[in-house]
């Protein structure tokens, strides 16, 4: 018993003290966590309320300015008769649109007459007195903001500021002035709000209708708007903070109503995200305390165990170094050799005995391979004196195609204090030969590919420039005649010069596009697909018009067609197809009969679809399978066989799209499909 006490009592006391300190540390961690959580909760609440008040004030000011503009317009309009002063009323409405940045401003009279400031003609069954905006103005009897309703023009929900106009003689309601709000600026403000903790903001009416919310929400956040609105509407406080649970998570809502409308501005934060970092830190501290305790005890026991193994490990290291098939050496911080094995002796051609502990530079006196030894000495100096990082060197022998791989690993203690390095040398001759042969084969393949593409590119550039050059010549010829006959205005002259510059720039872009066709450095860009098609149509129209061909582009001008891709490649494909369509019409119509080329633009959820239609001669029977292949043409000796082949290369290899024929004749229709956004 006394022997047991003398041997293990100090160890047991050390373990008990260690456990007590660990427990005390954990208690302090929990106390600190609770204090930090309370403080963070108050800081987040104060910060979010300030954000809500600030943006609420901005929206209020924005609405106040809009209301003042509408009120001012109604003051002028109450004195004007819609029959006698129609043009004056319309001018006031247009001025209000410009000043207030409204989408539209219009006025409806009690007799269902209607005047608008935009170019929109109301249908025959349109009665202003039955529209929601008129009813709101009539009911409120003062300037007010409507709830969202379906607009007769846009056929989607809009919000309007309305103002009733009364007859100053008898006080009866004469008309209601309405202005449609453009909520894009509020949308941009909400998108610009940088809320932490997975938060989001939205604008809602007091009856629970969402007016503005950020785009791009995940499905979970969009669904989270509805319970947030329910929590706001069910709260007794009109201003402040409330909470709600959704999908097993708790959320904090901060909101405040606007002064100039029946709207509420609100922000939502995920409570789990707010305290996530604190919870993670608590968990890490507890784990660290427990781990520190466990590893401390294990470390003590391990130290006792390892102290008996040090000598055995040293002997094992010596045995490994001398029996290893790799050449290796161990060098201390003074660059003295502590160990060098037999394979390294053979590589350095050292036949004499080595006195361990001497400097590595002293090996020059007994080494036969001085060149290899000098390389090793320089590498050791670089690692130990400069970089303190591992160094790997390949040393090929060009005469024998052999190759050695030298690795020098520094031994670094705390504080970047270097204690020495380990040097190893491996024979990688087989790997080096395989790598060399692979690179040579790759270079040969690249050169063959470039030579094969060179001929295609020269022919393609000639084919693509033919139409812009013809258009430029036609434009200059017409301009020369008009200038000579003095029948052209200065504006028309400038417009013609601009068109010529545009064609030349397009030719330059064509050359640049083909120069970079096989390069990977060309960058994608955002652009509007309809705008790109319009640019091509504007360039090709002069040459089409001279051949009595009508070139038209049909699309929904009210919509945007955003695309993230290569605009130049889209232009090249369209130029090719329009040029082919023009040639097909001229081949069919040897007389002066009129031809038609129609381009249409549609879209699906992921793609844009462009169709090029012409009433030309059509595609010959039996030529369908060869149409998109290289050096195949339907134009006989006039064709080069590059056009449709190049279209297929561009749309498939660069734009990740497709090209196909959906009608071979009467009319001939080519269909192009482009992804809206190319990834990778």
Overview of the molecule:
- With 680 residues, the protein is of the alpha+beta class.
- Among the domains are: 105 residues, PAS domain (Beta-Lactamase, 2-Layer Sandwich), CATH 3.30.450; 116 residues, PAS domain (Beta-Lactamase, 2-Layer Sandwich), CATH 3.30.450.20; 219 residues, Histidine kinase-like ATPase, C-terminal domain (Heat Shock Protein 90, 2-Layer Sandwich).
- The protein has 15 helices and 24 strands.
- The strands form six sheets. The protein has a five-stranded antiparallel β-sheet, sandwiched between helices. The chain has a five-stranded antiparallel β-sheet with strand order 9-8-12-11-10.
- Strand 8 and strand 9 form a beta hairpin.
- It is a multi-pass membrane protein.
- It comes from Sulfurospirillum diekertiae.
